[in-house]
Protein 1
Amino acid sequence: MDTLQKTIHNSEEPVVCRSCEARHGGLCSTLTPQQLCDLNRHSSRKKLEAGNELLGQGELVTSYGNILNGVVKLSKMMADGRQQIVGLQFAPDFLGRPFLAESKMTAEAATDVEICLFPRRVVDRMVSEVPDMERKLHNQSLKELDEARDWMLTLGRKSAQEKVASFLYMIATHIDPENDDKSAFDLPLSRADIADFLGLTIETVSRQMTKLRKEGIIRIENNRHITVPDLDALSEAAGND
């Protein structure tokens, strides 16, 4: 259900934005209270259950959004129907590419997701008018490029165990930015999706998870809940520097 964000008081910062992670660490952190009020007048919050599509590959882009909670799965489909998961986005990431009329990939809620949506025309205008907003988007794009290069190394050179450990380390350090405790989380992807993301078979993913559990690097409960007793040990298992 959409909830219009209309709680504003003159030029002060909108009440609904004050405790928002995206306001302090995301795209909205570049805006003055007045600019934030301007953007807020056009915004809406939306909650989606896991499995729901936010945007389809090839669809016309009508809105962008700040991810407030949850994990978004990005995937690309080939002409013959084969699909590849190409990335994950977490709060307070910005979902979308300003000035891009057509989506190059599918965005789907990997977990239950809450997102703050803005019309494309409004954000495109503000990006042109607010240099700090443009710079923030540029920096996010560079960050995503660096992460893509790191993931190329993971897929191309790391062992199966290092790949699985790298995935778990990424989830542990990104899934809940407001929580300083990175020792426990629920997997946002199924074993099949993890296998797709890592270029492994489901059986290999399961074997490596079991191996990491037997080595005491992780604990697994209910097949989805992961506890990491020592994050440094998981990082070492991932082959990180």
Protein 2
Amino acid sequence: MRIAKALLATLIVSLATPAFADQANMDKAINAAFKSYHDGGIEGMYQDARLCTTGVDFASRTESPAKRAEYCGAFEYTGFLILDAYDKLKDAGYFQAVGVLHRVGVNLERAGTINSPQQLNEYLVSHFGYVRAKVLARLPVPSTSATVCGHDCASRSAKQ
């Protein structure tokens, strides 16, 4: 019985955690977002995020649209978390939670990564949970409302 429970727990964790390659891609996005914010502030991060999201080539034969959409989503969510931690979300409309979730959902759908609200929720819970943990560990101040997509992504994305 213990072995079955251990195997079940391992399976659940492995399904809820993004693959290692996904983690490396998201780590690059997290690092890029922090650098963008430190180098250019809100405006610099906005420009980089906008170029990233609008620059996803969904017909590319050389670059995976799914990986690029994942990278851009992690970049934007990192931006949200950084600005939330520093209480600057009110000054950055582009990084409001609803906008970030909408753009990420659209790009993931266009890239063929997801095709239903349930798949979007599963993706966001695992991937954004990973991003959230990494970002919050790097922030010097506690974030007040950085629970977006901690557990409630489906209801947020369904309102779109």
Protein 3
Amino acid sequence: MTESTLMSDRTTRILRIGGWATAGLLLTVPAIAMQFPDSGVHWTVSDFVFAAVIFGLIGGLFELAARASRNIAYRAAVVVAVACGFLQLWITVAVGIIGSEDDPANWTYIAMVIAALSAAIVAGSARNLAWAMRFMAVLQLAFLALHLIEGHFTAVIDLFFTALWVLSSRLFARAAAQANAA
């Protein structure tokens, strides 16, 4: 593997510090917004705890990825996959993608996150992660079909998530090819 495909230790350190700082700053946004009564932001302690746990899990996944590989494509694939899972979870829990957050059809998006985490745990290598992300794209499309059959028009957001899974798959495949070329 050439040096151009690897992330330097210095860059890794900077990104790690920046990532954790960003997570902390994101938690302050609703706290600041709550100081303005007309903002419409009314978080409870449990909302802040939930957000902190989610941001901590995301940060932990990025830490694991940083330790798993210095390959830039691999790390980018992790960022895309984690972002896709995070968006599905956060939107579903906050407001619901289908109807309100209480609509049972939203569980398909929670299932996507659980499936992605399970696939990532068993996959191991970049090559297997590429296949796992392809599986996630197919599963997302299967849920899109289910949503359409049930009368929920979620094509735009489901295709967006599918595109993210495909992008992650392509990046993992590139990382695997670069590792094999080394």
